[in-house]
Amino acid sequence: MESQIIAFCLLAMACTLAMAFEPSPLQDFCVADYTSSARVNGLPCLDSKLAQAEHFTYSGLHLAGNTSNPLGFSVTPVTVAQLPGLNTLGIALVRFDYAPWGIAPLHVHPRATEIITVLEGSIQVGFVTSNPDNKLLSKVLQKGDVFIFPMGLVHFQRNVGNGNAVSISALSSQNPGIVIVASSVFGSVPGIDDDVLTKAFQVDKSTIDNLKARF
Ligand SMILES: *[C@@H]1O[C@H](CO)[C@@H](O)[C@H](O)[C@H]1NC(C)=O
């Protein structure tokens, strides 16, 4: 009986893991038809006979993003929203620009593992393992170094130099999604009740209100 329960649990875990990745394509490609009103998992396909090289092309990743903001950070995404040929293919690319000491704030990609490579500068990266360990794995990367943020874990990047920094990441989803921790917790609409947040963070209401006012 016990071994049956264990076998069932393993099977359930395997199914959950399999479901965490994007389904395999059933055709060569499925160029996204942004104009379709159909609601499906992903985007509906253009007639494949209408596919053009332009549907598989994005230009502009050589251009630096604007980092004149409080984070000193900019994201230039190339997901299915910018590149229709990515639809159903389970991959995307992003360019990050960092002002000196700029940061990518703590965030999670709910649908993708990320592999980052530094093109310019020195970038500290880190992610935190899930409960109960909550272990921070962090490192300073130099130009040419690569690091992985496993799917669904909270992570960050920080330019630890006095010059600009640039990195590029590939992500294992056409639509990785982003959950910014501070915005989700303190900037939700409508706001999460103070009672929930004061108990969750073990601080007083004024601290919560102060944080809510910023996000
Ligand atoms: C960069 O962003 C800032 C703040 O939004 C804006 O004032 C500035 O004009 C932008 N610079 C460029 C070159 O677009």
TrEMBL record:
Cited InterPro entries: Cupin_1 (IPR006045), Germin (IPR001929), Germin_Mn-BS (IPR019780), RmlC-like_jellyroll (IPR014710), RmlC_Cupin_sf (IPR011051)
Tell me the superkingdom of the source.
Eukaryota
Q: Which residues bind oxalate?
A: H109, E114
Please list the GO terms describing molecular function. manganese ion binding
Claim: Coiled coil is one of the keywords in the record: no
Alphabetized, the UniProt keywords read: Apoplast, Disulfide bond, Manganese, Metal-binding, Secreted, Signal
Q: What SMART domains has UniProt attached to this entry?
A: Cupin_1
> Domain Cupin type-1: where?
59-209
SS bond list? C30-C45
* Residues reported in the UniProt entry to bind Mn(2+): H107, H109, E114, H155
- Please give the family membership noted in the entry: Belongs to the germin family.
What protein name is recorded for this chain? Germin-like protein
Q: Organism source for this protein?
A: Fraxinus pennsylvanica
Q: What is the lineage of its organism?
A: Eukaryota, Viridiplantae, Streptophyta, Embryophyta, Tracheophyta
